[in-house]
Design goal:
single chain, 127 residues, mainly alpha, 4 helices
Length: 127
């Protein structure tokens, strides 16, 4: 049983967390996470915009306006991408309005409302 005694000794030598994280550290971590979310929104808008521009260029290049069914399909794709870009833009603006200087419980409620709103719009677009 020497192995168990070695493990027990190592376990007993561990030190517990001496201090709780400082408020400034928590706020800094939250701000970094918010920046990450904003960066993701930005890149999503960029990718969707580039895709839209490519589809519009293809629409003109392939003379899709001369073919009704092809034109309808490309128009639907472009419209949905533009709607998604608008959703991302509005979502970014709503994210900016979230108050980070309120209590944790209040901020959690606001964040949950924001994500519920976003989830409903995305589900609406993907029908």
């Amino acid at each position: 049983m020497k192995t168990f005694e070695d493990l027990q000794t190592i376990w007993n030598q561990q030190t517990g967390p001496d201090s709780k994280p400082a408020v400034a550290d928590i706020v800094k971590k939250a701000e970094e996470y918010t920046k990450k979310i904003k960066r993701n929104h930005f890149w999503t808008r960029v990718i969707l915009s580039v895709t839209s521009v490519i589809l519009i260029f293809y629409y003109v290049w392939a003379s899709a306006y001369k073919q009704t069914l092809f034109s309808l399909g490309l128009s639907i794709m472009i419209t949905m991408l533009v709607l998604r870009i608008i959703l991302e833009w509005v979502s970014m603006e709503k994210l900016k309005t979230l108050k980070s200087d309120v209590s944790l419980i209040e901020y959690s409620k606001l964040a949950e409302q924001f994500y519920q709103w976003r989830k409903k719009f995305i589900m609406f677009l993907h029908r």
